[in-house]
Design brief:
Length: 70
C-alpha cells in the first residue's frame, strides 16, 4: 500500500455505480510520486514518496515549512 510520507494520504474505498444503480467495490488510489527534494537546512537530498497535492504545495513553500505543518 502506498502512502504519502508527509501528509499520510493513502487509498480509499468506494463504489462504482452503474446505470442500473448496481454498486461494485472499487479502490481509489492516491496519486503518489517518488521525488528527490533538497532540504536547505540539512543541505542534502531526501528521497520521498509524496502525493501530488503536497508536491504542488512544495513549489510554493519550503520543505521545512511543510514538514512542520504535517
Amino acid at each position: 500500500m502506498t502512502k504519502c510520507q508527509i501528509s499520510g494520504k493513502s487509498s480509499m474505498n468506494g463504489n462504482r455505480v452503474s446505470h442500473s444503480n448496481m454498486k461494485t467495490k472499487h479502490k481509489l488510489k492516491a496519486n503518489i510520486q517518488r521525488k528527490r527534494i533538497f532540504d536547505v537546512e540539512l543541505s542534502k537530498w531526501i528521497r520521498l514518496k509524496i502525493s501530488t497535492r503536497v508536491l504542488r504545495t512544495l513549489s510554493k513553500k519550503s520543505f521545512s515549512a511543510i514538514n512542520k505543518k504535517y
